[in-house]
Specification:
The chain has 367 residues and is of the alpha/beta class. It has helices at 36-46, 57-81, 90-108, 126-135, 152-166, 185-202, 218-221, 226-241, 266-275, 293-309, 325-339, 350-366; strands at residues 21-29, 114-121, 140-145, 174-177, 207-213, 248-253, 280-284, 314-318. 48% of the residues lie in helices and 14% in strands. Strand 7, helix 10 (293-309) and strand 8 (314-318) form a beta-alpha-beta unit.
Length: 367
């Protein structure tokens, strides 16, 4: 017999002030501490996701548990330790700030919406956040992944976690999902402002390298739109900045395993540029909305060292969007677009709903 999670206590006539609509910002995740045990737990969850590693279990499981989880946690812990802050993991710190700022921005626009953040791997988990919101009486939830470019390994995996939670619920809230916003005008503008502000202090580089997280090349042939959406983001950003096509390079980072991934690869490209005599590069990671291990350690430490060792003179890392005003404004716009039709200005206030009905009837009569 199928068992569902217990439903929260129900009371009729709840106060109209009770939050009813919520937005859940979903990011990839982070270990709880920069230690080998914490990394082992985190990597076990991350690398067990069938969306992340599309290898048959009978092949992958001995590799994961027999080799990777025995050797990689200590190495990864050292890398995390190099970017850890007094407040904790940068990814968690920035994602938490984004959720709080988004709630404030929406509130200023008259939107009564609860905003929470969740992690696909690690804490707070998506299931725990959805449980919390449901317990608060929320019955409309907008799932907003912090991945501008759709990818099965990231965006779809978030949706999988939501669906898995939904399968345990007897009474389901209304659910909406944001698939992508790689070409959203305000997202592109937020990226452009980051570059412009950097250029105002440091000048323009010889090359602007836009580094996106990599995925296996076979996913492109199988129909994943990620590669195309990264290219479109880069093109729109270059046009907004009035950069010539040859001034901007799209690369892919964070390879894992021996299979071929999307190319060109970031670090080898930077080494090649240095050897070709390019003395100044700026590197930006448009696919990451929060600074994290992949940007702060892999790019600003490892890639920087590789470029300078190969003869490059100036390496500038342009930070992620983080808590930038233009980015929070862009998120607000994206959220409001997807909240249309849900009453968020007056929650479930009977007077507000009656006014909405009267307006709808008046419009119907005029038509």
């Amino acid at each position: 017999m199928l068992r569902f999670a217990p439903e929260p206590a129900h009371s009729h006539g709840q106060s109209p002030a009770t939050p009813r609509t919520a937005i859940v910002l979903c990011n990839l995740g982070t270990p709880d501490a920069p230690t080998a045990p914490a990394l082992r737990k985190y990597l076990a969850e991350f690398l067990s996701d069938k969306r992340v590693v599309e290898i048959p279990r009978f092949v992958w499981w001995p590799i994961l548990h027999g080799i990777i989880l025995r050797t990689r946690p200590a190495k990864s812990a050292a890398k995390y330790a190099s970017i850890w802050t007094p407040e904790g993991s940068p990814l968690r710190v920035w994602t938490d700030k984004q959720a709080k700022l988004l709630a404030g921005y929406l509130g200023q626009r008259g939107q009564r919406v609860t905003v929470r953040h969740a992690m696909r791997y690690g804490s707070p988990s998506i299931a725990s956040v959805l449980d919390e919101l449901k317990g608060m009486g929320v019955n409309r939830m907008l799932i907003l992944p912090l991945y501008p470019q759709y990818c099965a390994a990231t965006t779809a995996s978030v949706f999988d976690a939501v669906y898995a939670w939904a399968a345990t619920q007897r009474s389901l809230p209304e659910l909406r999902f944001v698939n992508r916003y790689h070409d959203d005008a305000l997202y592109i503008e937020a990226l452009a402002r980051r570059v412009i502000e950097h250029s105002q202090t440091h000048g323009r580089p010889e090359k602007l390298v836009l580094s996106f997280h990599g995925v296996p090349k076979r996913t492109l042939a199988l129909g994943d739109p990620y590669h195309c959406e990264c290219q479109k983001t880069a093109r729109l950003l270059a046009e907004r900045l009035s950069y010539k096509p040859e001034q901007v390079l799209v690369t892919f980072q964070s390879r894992f395993g021996k299979a071929e991934w999307l190319q060109p690869y970031t670090e080898p490209t930077l080494v090649k540029l240095a050897k070709q005599g390019v003395k100044r590069v700026d590197v930006m990671c448009p696919g990451f909305t929060s600074d994290c291990l992949e940007t702060l350690e892999e790019i600003n430490q490892e890639a920087r060292a590789a470029y300078t060792k190969a003869g490059g003179a100036e390496f500038h890392y342009i930070p992620c969007l983080n808590d930038q005003h233009e980015w929070i404004a862009a998120m607000s716009s994206i959220a409001m677009r997807h909240l249309q039709g849900w009453p968020t200005t007056g929650a479930d206030d009977p007077a507000a709903l009656a006014a909405e009905r009267e307006r709808a009837l008046a419009m119907g009569a005029r038509a």
